Amino acid sequence: MVLNQYIKEIGKNASEVDSIEKLIYLPISFFKSHRINSLNSNTDFHFKSSGTTGTPSKHYIPDLSIYESSFVQHFNHAFGDFEKYCHLALLPNYLEQGNSSLVYQVNHFIEHATVKGAFYLNDFDALAKHLESNKKKNIPTILWGVSYALLDFIAGFQLEWDKLKVIETGGMKGKRKEMIRTELHSILHSAFPKTEISSEYGMTELLSQAYWDVENQQFQTHPSMKIIIRDPRDPFNMMVTNRHGAINVIDLNNWQTCSFIETEDLGKMNETGGFDVLGRMDQAETRGCSLMYTE
């Protein structure tokens, strides 16, 4: 297993890990250079990251039912039963690149919800008609969208509707200038004044997701996912609440590959148990889930 080899190479001893504070996390970049698994599986099925530059990460998944169970649990924990919503998706770049874990997730929601939704590549008129129709029929709706595509869409469309939720997945994919989350959500609110604007924090290398809690203005996790903030200059020094640092993730649903991931995102834990994502570490590649951070 790559994590065991990594622990030996850095001179650590796994047998000495007897508390959560002593856990050792695998740098996320290993998903670009190694096949990560804990089952010695030979599966060829993998998800590929949506980074706009460099080598993509590949996450080989031996058992997709575990991923399906995970994203259903996490969504339901944040928003209630996914089946009660009609799911519409504006994720053009993910569809074009293929092998997207986000597309797999949203497609599952579309296919298994009570009212079947749809993907829209670049057909804004058809998406607008679907939203208007759902409003007339009073169907609770989720609109999933990558940030730049949502901004393109609302340039010609607005809707005042309190049974619509927008979940932006971050990232401008080189199509627009990156912006901080508060600015993005403010612009989206101008087009959807009665709509809850949320975000999903997830990545190819994990099976779990966190969602933006609008009321408390922070990301919240399901109990199977935990965020730890580390010192960006010392990956083995974990930081206290309300300090800015780099994000480590414990993902218990990711046991088929690696449950302890050292990401390249910057964040902050809050006293209430939620967290915020503040941007990317210096020299880290631009990723689909990133939003620019300014102090």
**Integer tally of domains:** 1
Number of DSSP E strands: 15
Shape: globular
Helix/strand class: alpha/beta
Largest sheet, in brief, is: 7 strands, mixed
Strand content: 25-35%
Overall mean confidence score, pLDDT? 90
What can you tell me about this protein's structure?
The structure is a single chain. The chain is an alpha/beta fold. It has one domain: Rossmann fold (3-Layer(aba) Sandwich), CATH 3.40.50. The protein contains eight helices and 15 strands. Strand 14 and strand 15 form a beta hairpin. Helix 7 (147-154) packs parallel to helix 8. The chain is globular.
Secondary-structure blueprint:
Elements: H1 2-9, E1 26-27, H2 30-33, E2 46-48, E3 58-60, H3 64-79, E4 86-90, H4 92-97, H5 101-112, E5 118-119, H6 124-137, E6 141-145, H7 147-154, E7 164-168, H8 181-191, E8 196-201, E9 210-213, E10 218-220, E11 225-231, E12 234-238, E13 244-251, E14 260-269, E15 275-280
Parallel strand pairs: 1-14, 4-5, 4-6, 6-7, 7-8
Antiparallel strand pairs: 2-3, 8-9, 9-10, 11-12, 11-13, 13-14, 14-15
Helix pairs in contact: 7-8
Write out key terms for the chains shown:
295 residues; alpha/beta; seven-stranded mixed beta sheet; Rossmann fold; 15 strands; globular; six-stranded mixed beta sheet; single chain; disordered C terminus; 25% strand; 8 helices
